[in-house]
Design goal:
CATH class of the domain at 2-49: Mainly Alpha
Shape: elongated
Low-confidence stretches: 57-61
Radius of gyration: 21 Å
Order of helices and strands: EEHHHHH
Number of strands: 2
Family: Belongs to the Bfd family.
Structural class: mainly alpha
Strand order of the largest sheet: 1-2
Protein name: Bacterioferritin-associated ferredoxin
Keywords: 2Fe-2S, Electron transport, Iron, Iron-sulfur, Metal-binding, Transport
Organism: Streptomyces melanosporofaciens
GO molecular function, one term: 2 iron, 2 sulfur cluster binding
CATH superfamily of the domain at 2-49: BFD-like [2Fe-2S]-binding domain
Length: about 90
């Protein structure tokens, strides 16, 4: 059955994209354009994805999550360090 009439995307295609990692309607749209024209199929896509369509964060390897958080914190620290401090004249 067609989910997206604008681009001819079927339920099976949406499920295949979900199996390969597309967990949100936006990610499905990025994979096959479904939902990017008239938008009437976005609710159908949401229903097909449903709850549990994607792995929960807790189910992921905690080392990967810790590494990702550390990398993000380091990037923030580098960005903050690269901003020069205001001079006394600028601060006043």
């Amino acid at each position: 059955m067609y989910v997206c009439s604008c681009f001819g995307i079927t339920e099976q295609q949406v499920r295949q994209h979900a199996e390969t990692g597309a967990c949100t309607p936006r990610q499905i749209a990025g994979a096959c354009k479904a939902g990017t024209d008239c938008g009437s199929c976005v609710r159908k896509i949401q229903a097909l994805l449903g709850r549990g369509a994607c792995p929960r964060r807790e189910a992921l390897d905690p080392v990967v999550l810790t590494t990702a958080a550390a990398t993000a914190s380091a990037a923030t620290a580098v960005a903050a360090a690269s901003v020069p401090a205001p001079t006394a004249a600028e601060a006043a």
